[in-house]
Design brief:
Blueprint lengths: L2 H12 L1 H10 L6 H24 L6 H20 L5
Helix pairs in contact: 1-3, 2-3, 3-4
Amino acid sequence: MSAAARAARWVGLAALVPLLGLYLATGLVAPRWAVVGFLVLWCGLLVTAVVSLRRRPSLVPLLPVVGLVVWFVVVQIGDAFLHWSA
């Protein structure tokens, strides 16, 4: 495994930290149940990342991207159909 591949998996794991902040800040526009759902999702992403560090290291950098896309889609749907607003 190259040094770049090793670094990429740790960068992917570290990128989950600001994603947690984004999920917590969602409480400004979303109801509590949605924030709890985001926190459960974040815990699932973290567990998947830690398990994938050895089994599938190429998956780890994609997990924060998946989390960001899910957050964006859910917040947009919440705004459009559930009238979430700040």
